[in-house]
Amino acid sequence: MIAARHRATTRAAGFTLIEIIIVIIVLGIIGAIGAVFVNYTVEGYDAQTRRAALVDDTTLALSRMARDIRAALPNSIRVTSSGSRIAIEMINVVAGERYRDGPGPSHNGDNAILKFNKPDDQFNVLPEMTQTLPANTRLVIYNVGISGANAYDNTNVITPASTTVAITADTDETRITLSTPFQFTYRSPDQRIYFVDGPVSYVCNTAQHTLTRYSGYRLMATQPIANSDFGAAGALAAEDVSGCNFAYSPGTAQRSGVATVSLALTRQGESVHLLEQVHVINVP
Fold first, then answer.
1. Is the N end or the C end of the chain the one with fewer CB atoms within 10 Å?
2. Cα 91 to chain centroid, rounded
3. Hey, how many other C-beta atoms are within 10 angstroms of the C-beta on 150?
4. φ, ψ for residue 105 (rounded to 5)?
5. Using one digit for the tens of pLDDT, what is the confidence trace for 73-86?
């Protein structure tokens, strides 16, 4: 009798096949429901990552453009378009000083004063310069962006590309020495002189979905836009470009100009469109 009760108790402690099947079905249902939530979470994370990468790439490209635009020579920004291409160009300033146009307490020699009535190869700028200038540095005085006073014409307001510029310390000022005498056509009302190292262009090509930065090419009266115009390889600033627009309002000598640049990137079905406006000082 005792043994029979023991066997019955042992049988009652186990699981039937139906119970195991029910448990498996329930676990499967729970797992399926959990997989749906996990899948939505992973997809959301992937989408957020793609959008963040698009925003970062677009912001980086616009920030680079804004930095170059802020460093532009006054009245040197210009925009052109052709077919699927649109380009914005500027002349890059590496330093800005004021030239000496009259005698001072410790600088009253003829070599310290910039002369406008004849070609000159030595004069002073102030305050004292501390930076090292690029080998291709050129000098610009009173570029107003019109015929006869346009740096892109390579005459009157800018030293020739073949003329080298050397700087030496002169007490609390800096002596500028040109390899070839040059006569600037116009005086600057505020004695401003700019040191530039050449033009910079951004070309957006919506057919190839690229934004390219060009530098190291020569100044041209007609704004370049095709790859062959630059004579130098460009650096890719952004890819997956689906749209862009550049505009420039020059303003006046009393009011800053405004460059407006917009850029749209599309990647894996996600799109980002950002716009930035950059104030440009146009006092020559």
1. N
2. 13
3. 19
4. -55, -40
5. 999 999 999 999 99
| Distances 134 to 74, 145, 159, 230 between C-alpha atoms, Å | 20, 24, 15, 20
Asked if residues 265 and 58 have their Cβ atoms less than 8 Å apart, the reply is yes
pLDDT bucket at 256, cuts 50 / 70 / 90: confident
Kindly state the tokens that stand for 250.
């020059």
**Within 10 Å of residue 175's Cβ, how many Cβ atoms?**
19
Contact 138, 159 (CB under 8 A): yes
CA distance 73 to 196: 8
Token look-up 């600033």 returns: 237
Q: Would you state the torsion angle of the CA atoms of residues 168, 173, 200, 186, taken in this order, to the nearest 10 degrees?
A: -110
The tokens 């116009």 sit on which residue? 186
Closest CA to 192 of 135, 121, 139, 116: 139
| Secondary structure (3-state) at 223 | coil
The CA-atom distances, in angstroms, between 261 and each of 45, 86, 224 are 30, 11, 18
Q: What pLDDT is stored for residue 40 in this prediction?
A: 62
DSSP structure string for 64-93: HHHHHHHTBPTT--EEEEETTEEEEEEEEE
Average pLDDT over residues 83-111: 90
Report whether 87 contacts 223 (CB < 8 A).
Answer: yes
> Is the full-model pTM beyond 0.85?
no
Contact between 118 and 184 under an 8 Å Cβ cutoff? The reply is: no
Q: Where are the alpha helices (DSSP H) in 141-274?
A: 227-230
Dmax over CA atoms of the chain, in Å, equals 134
pLDDT number for residue 22? 80
**pLDDT band at residue 1 under the 50/70/90 scheme:** very low
Residue environment code for 63-94, b if the CB has 16+ CB neighbours within 10 A, otherwise e: ebbbebbebbbbbbbbbbeeeebbbbbbbbbb
Q: What is the rounded distance in angstroms from the CA atom of residue 206 to the CA atom of residue 145?
A: 29
